[in-house]
Predict the 3D structure of the following.
Amino acid sequence: MKFNMNNMNKKYFYLCGVVLLLIHLAVLTGYGMSKEGYHEDEYYSFFSSTGTAAVYPRSAYDVRTGHEMQRQFMVRQGERFRFAEVIQNQEEDVHPPLYYLALNVIMSLMPEHFYKWFGLALNMLCSCVTLGGIMYLLHSLGKGEACYPAVLLGGLVYAIAPSTVSNVMFIRMYAMSAMWTVLYTCVIVTVMRRGECGRRRFAVYTAAGAVLCWLAFMTHYFCLLVPFFLTLAYGVVTLWRRKGILRMLVYGLCMCGAIGLAVYCYPASIEHIFHGYRGEAALSVLLNGSFREMCAMFLPVLDKNVYAGMMWAVLALSVAALVLLTFRRGMEGTDRAALGRGAVVYLACLASICFLVKTSLFLGDSSCRYFYPVLALLLPLQAYLWYRAVSELTAGRKRRGIIGVAAVLLACVPLLAGHMQNRVLFLYPEEAEKKELSYRYGQEYPLIMVYSKEASQRSWYMADQIWPYQYVIYSDYEHMLELPEDPLLTQAKGFVVYMDAPAETLDPLVERNPNVEGYTLLRKDNFFMVYLVE
């Protein structure tokens, strides 16, 4: 059978889909192997999923072992599947518990162990489901076998996009949020496409949408943004058509009921949304912040890390493609209806991004994480629109296949440029050298962590650098000059010290230990300066 890119049959389409999945897994595995460190929120993901409380210093002078500090990020033997404690940890913070419950299940299968792959494997599973959902969604926007290349291009864009990889590398709830976002979009597009289906089938679609709304709410509150705008668009389109209004109302009420049920199941959500530090910050920015100022902060970060500096060109091409396809006279009625649903999804994504720009905390490059669930839809849809527009323009012309390949390459240029510019975030390659130093001195020198009482949690922002040390000594700033006569301090051959204080603070330590002569500043991290005393 002769292969034709522009008229691919179902067999080749499914085969290419499997190849895309394998490419996606290979890309994620390769980057996962190169992940050397963790964002402080990733540490929180692990320790809040263990079902135990964090280990903070017990007094002004506290001695621990590195292994003891590492165990706070492990599920301990005899404490597996402590779901109630995981939920309580999230209630005390500002997040829903579903992602952390799933992480607890994985960690409980191997108690007394810590691996980055616990979180990465969960995120990779979510991402693979997301990829399947994207391809199903894009296929539902086309017509028959002619749309297969456009669907595969959209899937390829998702599979290799730096933003996709970054989302998986970040061990938080955003990869799961992207999965629920895409799956809900598949459901509501199906509802809009098959609005006149039988009652039983409509009930199944409605139930699926309600379940996904519940799951989205229990994963991340912002995860409901795209479903909200899509459901709103469904209502507007239905009222405009004056057809299927009763079903639209039933569907909308069921979605509201699902969210109400989620609040009933997790009442702490009310406190989180309206009174928690994160909710109050979001509401304050929404009501008082300037949208122009927020755009000035967020858009350059998105341009650099998602589009490799080509954001405005990509958006312009996408809008041009959408306008072309919308007003192209040669398109058939069914194809126009499918394109209309695609336009609704595209506009819902843009509206969600505008809302996120208005309400999200600006945290530098890591701010991109707020947008990953929306980008999981937006980037493949843009590539799909490009290919469909090119196909429409070149219909019946010679060398159409070459032009199609050019469209594929054009869609992939920003993604490949992003990889070349190292725009995959949350890998922290610089941490490898820091951990190597810990292993070099860990068994011979104790580590002294000089912390502030007001920010004691910062002592675990570099947790994996602490674990190799046989002894870890905690002291707050106020008592650094009043350290006890501990043999660990007076007889050690040397120390590694993490602190953010004047270097003279180390003078009493040097004076009381005849085995050391002075100190050297090794490096300056975000929250601590690292000294070697020997």
Observations:
- The first helix runs from residue 10 to 34.
- The mean pLDDT is 87.
- The beta strands are 61-64, 447-451, 472-476, 495-499, 519-524, 529-533.
- The chain has 23 helices and six strands.
